[in-house]
Design a protein that fits this description.
The complex is a heterodimer. By secondary structure, chain A is mostly beta strands. Chain A is 8% helix and 55% strand. Chain A has a domain at 1-122: Phage tail protein beta-alpha-beta fold (3-Layer(bab) Sandwich). Chain A has a 22-stranded antiparallel barrel. In chain A, strands 13-14-19-20-15-16 form a 6-stranded mixed sheet. Chain A is globular and about 115 Å long. By secondary structure, chain B is mostly beta strands. Chain B is built from 2 helices and 17 strands. In chain B, strands 1, 2, 4, 5, 6, 7, 8, 10, 13, 16 and 17 form an 11-stranded mixed sheet that branches. Chain B has a 3-stranded antiparallel sheet with strand order 9-12-15, with no helix packed on it. Chain B is globular, with a radius of gyration of 25 Å. The chains are: A mainly beta, B mainly beta. Chains A and B meet through strand 25, strand 26, strand 27, strand 28 and strand 44 of A and strand 1, strand 3, strand 13, strand 15 and strand 16 of B. Strand 44 of chain A pairs antiparallel with strand 3 (54-55) of chain B.
Chain lengths: 920, 287
Amino acid sequence: MQKQLLLILYVLGLTVSYAQTPTDSAAELIIKDEFYNNKPLSEIIADLQKKYKFKIGYDAELLKKYKVSYWFDNTKLLDGIKGALKETKDLTFYIDETNVIQIVPKTATEILKTARRDFDTRYRGEPTRSDFTLMGRVVERKTSENMPFASVAVLGSKIGVQTNVDGYFTLLKVPSDTVTILVSYVGYKNAKVHLSPKTPLENFIIEIEPGEQVLEEVMVLGEKTEVLKANEIVGMIKMTPKNLAKLPNIGERDPFRAFQLMPGVSASNESSSGLYVRGGTPDQTLVLYDGFTVYHVDHLFGFFSAFNYNALKDIQLYKGGFDAKFGGRISAVAEITGKEGNKNQFNAGADLSLLSMNGYIETPLSKKMTLLVAGRRSYKGALYEKIFSTFTTERQTNVSQPGAGGFGGRPGGGRFGNMATQNQTAQSYFYDLNAKLTWNLSKKDIFTWSLYNGTDKMDNSSASNFNFGRQSLFGASTSSTDVSAWGNLGSSFKWSRRWNDKLYSNMLISYSNFYSNRDNTRAVVNTIPATDSTVATTRNINIGQVESNDLKDFTAKIDFEYKLTPHNQLQFGIHSTANTIVYKYTQNDTVDVLSKNDRGVITSLYLQDQIRLLQTRLMIKPGLRLNHFDVTNKFYFEPRLSGTYAWSDKIKFKAAVGRYYQFAKQINREDLTQGNRSYWLLANGESLPVTKSDHLILGGSYEFKEYLVDVEFYQKNNVGITEYTLRFVPQIRQGLSVQETFFNGDEVVRGVDVLLQRKFGDFNGWIGYTLAEAVRKVSAFSDRPYYADQDVRHQFKFIGAYRWKNIDFALTQIFSTGRPYTSIAGAYQITLLDGSVRNFTMPSDKNATRFSPYHRLDVSATYNARWGSIGLSFFNVYNRKNVWYKRFEIITEGEESVLQTTNVNYLGFTPNVTISWKLH
Amino acid sequence: MKSYITSLVSLWSMAVLFASCTETHSVIDANEKPVIEAFLAPGHPVSLKLTTVIGYTGEESSDSVARPIDGQQIQIKVSDGSIFTLNSVGDGIYESKATDIVKFGLIYTLDFTYNGLPISATTVIPTRPTGFKISKDIVYRSKIDLSSGTGGFGGPGGFQEDRTPIEASWDNPNGEYHFVALINTEENPESIVILPTDTDTPLPPFNRRINNEPTTATVTNIMPQTFQYFGKHYAILYRLNPDYAALYRSTGTTTQNISTPPTSITNGLGIFTGVNADTLIVNVYRY
């Protein structure tokens, strides 16, 4: 069965390749006198084609098996073929939309069904219009949602475009109104629409519906380039979140974790769901959600990303060499489009996993307005506890117990409960909410309002109350606060307008706020009752650290698309972003250890031209982006150029060069004991330079049968990268200056991404391999270059999916070289004044050691039903102990102190069940 | 004979190869730095502890230990021009004979050579803290016997149990660092809590936090529950230099955050700092 299906798909592939040269009257052709005696059918067809100059679609290998005797005697070609095929019993034919005869096995029922439908619906009269402009929209059949970035092409011609972010397309110079339009979109069935003289040329709606293909949601663009000439972008991956359910998951179906399964995106950081793209760090990836920037994408210590797949429609990830439209980041761009909601009827759905609850509603509010609301919240189940405890093992201070006679440790005394009542509230959760309101005011205007809010909170506080007697006359309470909260609030308001058939504009204003606070203090409230001579007094004392980071982003953008000709499209626009970033680190109520209050405005202009040359074989995109950053009061000029060249239908070459600047950077601290692991700062041109990156990408792809091979080489030269450390604090005093904790240098990243994908069939999937290195040179750390924290030499990924009846099986295997880390050269102890002993470690050479390789296997099975699905997943099946970091402890035995090394590991074997329900 | 020569040659060439692979560093190997621990307080003899660091080779079964360094010629120069030497008394301890050499306001400079490197450090003795008060000097506690293994919780809190914290306060016009330590002075102190003998369960993390940290405030609270022994205690208020407070800055012991606290010691590690103190007495009585 599987073989046959492959055969059909192969035939389909041939169909497509022949479809480009239609011969309208081939079927009517008269063959005067040709006699074939017991010859392979393939030879007969080849001979006829040669002599009579027409095309027939067929698989030569298949037809070779059939020997046929037939005499063409003033026979119409179509009748002759009919007669010849009769002898074979197995074969049949149909005429495709470009009037080419296609010979296929009779078992290819699906193709034949579609072909018959096509044949029936095709308009067979004479065209009445030619060289016209067709404008319209691509929507999903069930919900009528607009589909962004879908490919729209005129079958059998070189004309093709991509829908814009609102699903609109404009095809210029359509040759006639009897052609067929083909629409394709990842995760959806290709849609063919036959034009007729009655077809409206404006507001033409094309509906597409979800496909059954397993795992087709992740595909490298260029995959279907024989048909579509539109989506050819270097280093881009596109995903439809709706099919994420088919991949293994633990608790949440995470689009960012799915991207990590592609080559070039690191998959070995369980403690960050951010995208480490091609040797870059997550802060170097621009994450746009409905047009606004999301600055922090982690939930639950990075185990999940902040994006709820129920609220997402489309995600595109550019791994480098991206368009002039995007700026402010040096590594990659993830452009996320949220769902608008069902325009036809009310719908609702819910997911329940061992980790969280997730629900959404989508509904039309009026004929022109739709609303979608999606929310989720974690609950404290076993799975949550397991992940939580894995990532919080280090949240304790490291102090040895004092020796006999000493004093100091073990405060609170709550364990020996006769002293006081103690409440420890170790509480932790995350939630997020997405809402989107879409208003199609007219055929030309769409207004969209989108909101995202997500927060993680962890409260590890404890409180003790001491009440004296029933009347609580005397009292005191101490409370240890250890509260961390971080999250995002973002919103955008967008007005899209189609001015005419050539000009489209998007105006957007947005607000985005990332906040991260950690309060690790001990408050002591002391009440002394009134006596005869004194009045009652209350004193508050706070001891400990408070850290907060608050980033606000106000952005206004205007983007235009202007079609000059069918093969030349201009994109230009103005972006302006005002950032205020406050970072504060306070100790013991009063002392500001580090305090920064940054403000900056980045104003950018860009212009990009997309040109198709050499009969659309060559596509080039020269672009320019000019930024002004008011903090340095300098202009930053970003020239960019990318292009693809289709050598043949199967072989394609691609390349990109460009310059990229980054103004807001995240200082990454992987360490949990230090509170939140990252905070944002704005470059100031001096101690924190603006980061510059030059990209070069060269690649190619080759398609054969159902396989795709894609290879891309890349190199990035980064200047002005920043590392944070408290290692070299030179002076002992109360505050720290920025210059003492940030160190700058350069970096070179290079590598190659290889993808081998099997696109079709019941069994499909891909193998990804990345060979890369990221070498940094920061003189403060070492006079020699060293490997960056995120450097991974080899990374291998295998993703396989199999569909059996209603069940999708999936398996992912990841193997990755261990990350580099800084080990210790030694340790020592100091006895403090209260007799307690404190341990200290000394760093060895920066990142000179590597952890053992990271690998794991995940499997899943998903049963699909009309009402939803049930998914069973197993994470880290063989319970590999992947090292997250190492802990060093000094163990004192008698007189001797010995160093002990402990590996702190990532998550072990973890099962999960997810039940999904949907109304429609 | 021929094979003998061959193996000799190959051994030699391997040795050369290895030797040429050895990289030379201009920086001092951290393991060569000595660890110094010295608190200079007026009215006390100077005592300095000198040890090696606990080296780390990266092997799991590393048995490195901190070894005492004895027999060094250690001098301390005082800003009034005087110089005194510390005598090595064994176990890495060096002591001064006189008790009156540390005086507030003077600058003390440590100076000696170890492993061919000059080790030096400078500190100033802070002024004596003033205005040290505690809200009460007697605390009543009951004996808690958990050895019977009945678990971590005793009976209900009795009326007699003292739960009002001791508030310690002092003057601090210049915002200097202060720190209160409590030291039991009994020769054979009697433990308040008799711990269960079969205690496998580790104490919850919040119990291990250091209650007192150097503070620039003027007040701190001492919970009666923090006392572990009956008897006489010194409540010592230290006035400190910032380098002592730096020891309390979160320092890492994992590969995510390895760092050494800043120190005033050149070519060495640890602490060499002046402190000044005022002492009061707190008695813990058995109820």
